[in-house]
Amino acid sequence: MNHGIGAVSALTLTRDGSEIVSADAMGRVLRWRRETGEALCPLLVAHKRSVWAMLLGPDDQEIVTAGSDGTLRRWNRATSTSAAAPVSAHDEWILALRKTKDGTELLTAAYDGTVRRWNRADGAPLAAPLTAHDGAVRAMALTPDDREIVTAGNDGAVRRWDRAAATLLAGLDGHVGPVPTVVVSADGSEIVSGGRDGTVRRWDRESGRPLAAPIVAGVPVRALALTTDGEIVAGCDDGIIRRWQRATGQPVGSPLATDHWSIWAITVTPDDREIITGGWEGYIRRWARDPADPTALRPAVNQTRVDPAPRLVIRGITPF
User: Fold this and answer.
1) pLDDT value for 308
2) Of 52, 79, 108, 217, which residue is least crowded by CB atoms under 10 Å?
3) CA 302 → CA 10, 11, 140, distances in Å?
4) What is the pLDDT of residue 5?
5) What is the C-alpha separation between 53 and 109, in angstroms, rounded?
């Protein structure tokens, strides 16, 4: 599955896992049939500039996007038409987007260091902006009960906030440099963060204490996902998938080279049987994960690869 010249910046799945929705750094959104790689709609130009965050509404009927133009937008998934007027949410790039479980509230986090809460139905602000970090908020998660916001920033900090009161509950310090990704376990007990310092860190949510020594990936970690059976899955800047047991920090299998130049987005199907990755070069790739033999990953049978033409490869530092 190929976005062409647009780096794949966000990935999500419908609840039944049958459809992949992807967004890219050119501001476009595409829908794909997961098992065949068939494109299900024409390119939806959602933003004038990059889409850095995206999610589906609680009933999968809407695609919600947020981009570097500072706007929050809602789209009818079936028709690719606008479902509401754009919300001018931030003056700078929106880098993270979340929703509450009931879908009534959207939360955005941006380069301006703030987190903002919005009524999904009418786009009205629900509270004053929360100044979460000294510098960009790179990643954000909600605890399963929606009571806490977890943020990660360019300042190297991971922080917990009371969502309703907008008060700081705890700071989790340990990373050196930007933290591009943070996730919360399904039971809410653990926070896992990945940094440009090449480490993955696990924290006890209540106490704020590290659960173990940092896991060393050795290269910047850009995206994280957790499986329901206890794996941490990391997409790294060298295009490699790395996996560890969450309980022990021990590696699962060998690092897998994906042919991505850098992995910018990663997700796991609801049944844990596939890992899906999106790369800087514009490809989406599927990897089969057999629960009976979790040490091995292989390309999914129906993986699609198009655009065999030669391309210019640009190496070097990117803004992220």
Assistant:
1) 31
2) 79
3) 21, 18, 33
4) 72
5) 10
- DSSP for residue 291: T
The pLDDT averaged over each successive group of 10 residues in the chain (320 residues) is 87 97 96 95 93 96 97 97 97 98 97 98 97 97 98 98 97 96 97 98 94 97 96 98 96 95 97 96 94 82 41 40
- CA-closest candidate to residue 29, choices 265, 234, 240: 265
**Residue indicated by tokens 């803004």:** 319
- Say how many residues make up the chain: 320
Contact assessment for residue 283 and residue 2, using Cβ atoms and an 8 Å cutoff:
yes
Strand order, beta sheet including 199-204: 181-184, 190-194, 199-204, 215-216
Structure-block tokens of residue 294: 């979790």
3-class SS of residue 113:
coil
Whose tokens are 């910018």? That residue is: 264
Q: d(Cα 184, Cα 270) in Å, to the nearest integer?
A: 16
The CA distance from 65 to 73, in Å, is 5
Read off the DSSP letter of residue 283: B
pLDDT of residue 302: 52
Judged by DSSP in three states, 290 sits in coil
Q: What are phi and psi of 85, to 5 degrees?
A: -65, 145
pLDDT recorded at residue 263: 98
Spatial contact of 266 and 275, defined as CB atoms under 8 Å apart: yes
Of 99, 237, 259, 90, the C-alpha closest to 178 is 237
